[in-house]
Amino acid sequence: MVVTGEGKMTNGLKAKTAMFTIFLIFTTVLAMSCQECPTEPEYEIDLSVEDYLCTWVDLRVTLTESSNSKYISIKSIDGEIEFTPSYGIIGSDTVLRIDGLQPLTEYSFRAYYLKHDKAIDSSNIVTIHTRETTSSNFRWEIDRIGVHPTCLNDVQIISENNVWVVGDIRLEDTYTYDSAGVWQEPYSGAHWDGNEWKLIRFIEGTVRRPNGIKCFSDSSIWLTPGSICYYDGSTTKQIWIQNYSAGEFLYRVWGSSESDIWFVGSEGLIVHYDGETFSRIPTGNTIRYVDVEGTPDGKNVFVVGHNLKIPYECCVWHFIDGNGQIIYYTDDPNQTEGTYGSVYRVGLFENKAYFKTVTGMWVYDFKKNTSELDPAIADAPITSMIVQDRNDIMGLCADGSWAHYNGQNWSTNDDFYWSGTISCNRADFKGDFALMVGVSRDASCGVIIRGYR
Q: Does residue 112 sit in the same domain as residue 206?
């Protein structure tokens, strides 16, 4: 009996021990469950449209959690396009470009946050409608003016039926004495009314060969025959004279208004007119400035220059509200590490400057301070770069050829490249009308090439 009684006590103790153990485990688990559990980080993702054109879109991906590398995928809603970067996105704000889109097409995109190749979150949906490409088909006509040594230097299109051309225009009975012994000056310009060219002498003996022209109207025209002249529709006045002894010579002129005009030329010469005063801009160099272009409001102006002599120098000025700084400089005409080589011409549209360089077209976004290079037209000898829109860019070349960007690709044409017999100095492009001016060497005369799209 004693043994049996001891056995019952042992079994009861075991039962109590087991119950205590269960209670201890339960309370431990309960205590742990009451503690604050670590939460999974939020992986919110936002998608927005940064920019787009005819065949591409730049999408900005914004992530809220930024401690680790992020892997994302972007897909079109229809499932036909999927873009996954091959690298981790460091940080929380990245712009990605998707190419290969079709012009004039609507696309909707969503971004996905990937973890172990699985989507753990998705963004909002963004929608774009790609832009239409422009036509690169032009019909060209050639007009010949004057006799040797006629040379046309610049042109401005006001409309298809209102065009001004300047240069040195000789006829058989000019630059000589007439039968009465009176000296006959050559012509210095021509006006197109849609049907014919009318020759003009801006002023006898003074404005013999203007290099640049800027028209604000038919009765307000600025000329750069080395100095600065103003034509009011009937008479021309020379109102600023360069320093001949220093070798100064003004080539080009651009202005946003009659109280904001810029003139550029040789020996580092940049002149600004504010409607009352002509001011020389100190450049600190003797570079030959060959092109100037600005935004319609005049807030941003770019000047391009390069030397034809040794030592070689090339630079680009950016003026903001009249205050300038050099944003590009090289002493090597060829491309070197970190440079585009020589810069020849500039065109502007909205917040982007388009520079023709030895390496192609350098596109500089001066608000974002970012740059891209399109090497497609690196070999084109472009004398004028006119940007009507981002999908409508015309580069007109010294040899009479031309290149047009329609928003998707460049088209080139050398119909007028006749073994070097045409030399084009400048060009203009407005709407569906393009015009090149220069010299036709085979005919020993001035040449005007009109293009109709």
A: no
Cα separation, 69 vs 303, whole angstroms: 42
How many Å apart are CA 294 and CA 103, to the nearest integer? 29
Domain span including residue 338: 139-452
pLDDT of residue 164: 98
* Size of the chain in residues: 453
Q: Which of 14-18, 196-200, 398-402 bottoms out in mean pLDDT, i.e. has the lowest?
A: 14-18
Q: Which among 129, 162, 184 is the end of a domain?
A: 129
Higher pLDDT, 6 or 214: 214
pLDDT in tens, 251-300: 999 999 999 999 999 999 999 999 999 999 999 999 999 999 999 999 99
Contact 426, 157 (CB under 8 A): no
Kindly tell me the sign of the dihedral angle through the C-alpha atoms of 321, 324, 325, 331.
Answer: positive
CATH code, domain with 83:
2.60.40.10
The domain that holds 373 is classified in CATH as 2.130.10.10
Same domain, yes or no: 370 and 412: yes
Number of domains, the chain:
2
In terms of domains, do 94 and 150 share one?
Answer: no
Q: Are residues 262 and 238 in the same domain?
A: yes
- Residue 267, in any domain of the structure: yes
87 and 185, same domain (yes or no) = no
Distance between CA atoms of residues 255 and 451, nearest Å: 25
Of 225, 174, 240, 166, give the one whose Cα is nearest residue 197.
166
| Pair 125, 261 in one domain | no
